């Protein structure tokens, strides 16, 4: 949580870089990291690379989103417990917008345009926050921050859905 890269705005990726070997290695490194830690997603700044790249494990499978742009499609929020590989050992409830549009480039540089709801929307908002230097702990609903160990022992308060974080 204290690394400066996690606290700065990440840079846009130049599309012509996407197909380079070095960039593809970064993507593979991110996939391996998410798999190792069983996370719901990961942003490049979390592996010390200050670029606008996220991996989000969505309902239809893991997706790479490069230079993602989010548009909120509702004012409705969904509350869920989040965690983060960069802030280990904690969980806290966060309210996120329930339905979003995501425009991005995929891992081969092709344009993507998707509408996401609920858990998928939560994951993408959490990961995209990382690109702006924002950690979920700054968005936690007061009174809900807990150690993971105690979250597992006592569970979340009623009415809050459970999820695992990236
Ligand atoms: Ni995170």
Task: Kindly list the characteristics that best describe this protein.
23% helix, 5-stranded antiparallel beta sheet, 3-stranded antiparallel beta sheet, alpha+beta, globular, 166 residues, 3 helices
Describe the structure.
There is one protein chain. With 166 residues, the chain is of the alpha+beta class. 23% of the residues lie in helices and 31% in strands. It is built from 3 helices and 8 strands; from the N terminus they run αβββββββαβα. The strands form 2 sheets. Strands 1-2-3-6-7 form a 5-stranded antiparallel β-sheet, sandwiched between helices. A 3-stranded antiparallel β-sheet has the order 4-5-8. A hairpin with a 2-residue loop joins β2 and β3. The protein is globular. The two termini are 13 Å apart. The model has no long low-confidence stretch (mean pLDDT 93). The structure holds nickel (II) ion.
Describe the structure concisely.
This protein is of the alpha+beta class. The protein has 3 helices and 8 strands; from the N terminus they run H-E-E-E-E-E-E-E-H-E-H. Helices cover 23% and strands 31% of the residues.
Order of helices and strands: HEEEEEEEHEH
> Got a strand count?
8
Radius of gyration: 15 Å
**Average pLDDT value?**
93
Q: Level of helix content? A: 10-25%
The order of strands across the largest sheet is: 1-2-3-6-7
- Bound molecule types: nickel (II) ion
Tally of separate helices: 3
Poorly predicted runs: none
Percentage of β-strand residues: 25-35%
Main pleated-sheet profile:
5 strands, antiparallel
Distance between the termini: 13 Å
What is the SS-derived class? alpha+beta
């Amino acid at each position: 949580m204290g690394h400066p890269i996690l606290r700065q705005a990440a840079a846009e990726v130049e599309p012509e870089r996407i197909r380079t070997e070095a960039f593809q290695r970064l993507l593979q490194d991110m996939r391996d990291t998410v798999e190792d830690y069983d996370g719901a997603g990961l942003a490049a700044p979390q592996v010390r690379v200050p670029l606008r790249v996220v991996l989000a494990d969505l309902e239809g499978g893991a997706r790479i989103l490069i230079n993602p742009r989010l548009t909120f499609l509702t004012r409705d929020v969904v509350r869920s417990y989040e965690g983060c590989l960069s802030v280990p050992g904690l969980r806290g409830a966060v309210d996120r917008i329930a339905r979003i549009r995501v425009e991005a480039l995929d891992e081969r540089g092709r344009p993507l345009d998707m509408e996401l709801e609920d858990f998928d929307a939560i994951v993408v908002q959490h990961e995209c926050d990382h690109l702006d230097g924002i950690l979920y702990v700054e968005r936690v609903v007061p009174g809900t921050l807990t150690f993971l160990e105690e979250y597992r022992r006592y569970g979340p308060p009623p009415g809050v859905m459970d999820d695992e974080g990236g």
